[in-house]
Amino acid sequence: METVVKGTNHIRFFSQNATLLPGDSITSASGRYRVRLQSDNHLLIQERTRTEEGKTKWEPVRLSGIARIVTRVWFEPNRRLVVYGNVKGKEQPIYISCNAINAISCVMQDDGNLVLNDSNNRPVWSWYSEGFTAV
């Protein structure tokens, strides 16, 4: 399984104990959607579109509701997705997914949902358009 390392990465999924850092993204298989932690610390889902000139452009689809404070996203070895942010000058967890007991990978799907999948590739947690939610 692939993991995210520091720098600008555009991957399809990441495994346990991997970290999404500013500038990194996870892209769906078709390349239509991505979840991106921007360098300005916004965490969002974007959809790839084309301009009139035929250039690729990424449009925000969903925001995490956590504005300008996200420092990293970590898929913990204990199978939770944790969003860390800068709170009063200190890095702290600002969102923790449910304990997705069987989760082994974090995937950006072609329907625009970020999911934690089990070993049978079934989602056990998803980030829907309403924001972070448990399934």
Please sum up the structure shown:
This protein has 135 residues and is mainly β. The chain is built from no helices and 14 strands.
Low-confidence stretches: 1-10, 129-135
The overall pLDDT average reads: 77
* First-last Cα distance: 24 Å
Fraction of residues in β-strands? over 45%
Number of strands: 14
The oligomeric state of the chains shown is single chain
Helix tally equals: 0
Shape: flat
Report helical residue fraction: under 10%
Please outline the major beta sheet.
Answer: 5 strands, mixed
- Helix/strand-derived class? mainly beta
Tell me the series of helices and strands, N- to C-terminal.
EEEEEEEEEEEEEE
State the strand order across the main sheet. 1-4-5-6-7
From the alpha-carbon coordinates, what is the Rg to the nearest angstrom? 14 Å
Task: Characterise this structure.
The chain is an all-beta fold and 135 residues long. Helices cover 0% and strands 52% of the residues. A 5-stranded mixed beta sheet has the order 1-4-5-6-7, with no helix packed on it. Strands 2-11-12-13-14 form a 5-stranded antiparallel beta sheet, with no helix packed on it. Strands 3-8-9-10 form a 4-stranded antiparallel beta sheet, with no helix packed on it. Strand 4 and strand 5 form a beta hairpin. The N terminus and C terminus are likely disordered.
